[in-house]
Each structure stands twice: as C-alpha cells, then as structure tokens.
Amino acid sequence: MISGAHVILYSQNAEADRDFIRDVLDFPGVDAGGGRLIFKLPPAEVAVHPTDGPPQHELFLMCDNLDSQLAEFRARGIEITRPISEQRWGKLTAIRLPSGAELPLYEPLHPTAHSL
Q1: CATH 3.30.160.40 fits 14-108, yes or no
Q2: Which of 31, 34, 64, 60 is nearest to 47 (CA)?
Q3: Tens digit of pLDDT for each residue in 93-110?
C-alpha cells in the first residue's frame, strides 16, 4: 500500500533552501543524516496534465488566501517573483528561494482533493 509521496527539490544552494523551508515556511522536518532534512508537507494532491513536450514535474504550494499569504511573505522580506495572475483554475504567483529558484504558489478556484 502506498503510504505517502516524497518530493525532491534539486538546489544549487540546498542548505539555504532547507533553512528557508524550515525557518520561513515553518515546515517541521527530520534529519535523514548528514544534515539532509526531510520536511513534512501540508496535505497534497497530484494531477496529470497532457503535454506535447517532454514529460516534466512541477511543485506548487497551495494556500487558502493568496493575498494574505503574500502580505505575510512581504512582511518577512520574501521576494515575490511574479505578479498574481488569474488563471481559470486559480490565482497564481511565485516566491524566490535563497538559491534563486522560484517556488510557485496558488489559491485554487477548483475543487481540491487534498482533504478527501
């Protein structure tokens, strides 16, 4: 029986991104050895979308109120890298990780599966 999902983010500054996830996003975690932290994620869901290009995977964090979440991030000095865009499925933006990578987040306007 499948008991969970494990997501890996590859980073050019893994230590700084781990600190950000732990200290800024406040995700609890465990040390898997050698300082390799593994974080508990909020409830999750997976979607499969068609593509004409090569297969790829993406990670988006979801929030209930994007405007208030961004206000909190701004107050903590977190860079918002994209203006909020209205998509048919939700409100989308992204924040900057210490490594320079973007981490998209959105407020869904569609039914969610993560609480089933």
Answers
A1: no
A2: 60
A3: 999 999 999 999 999 999
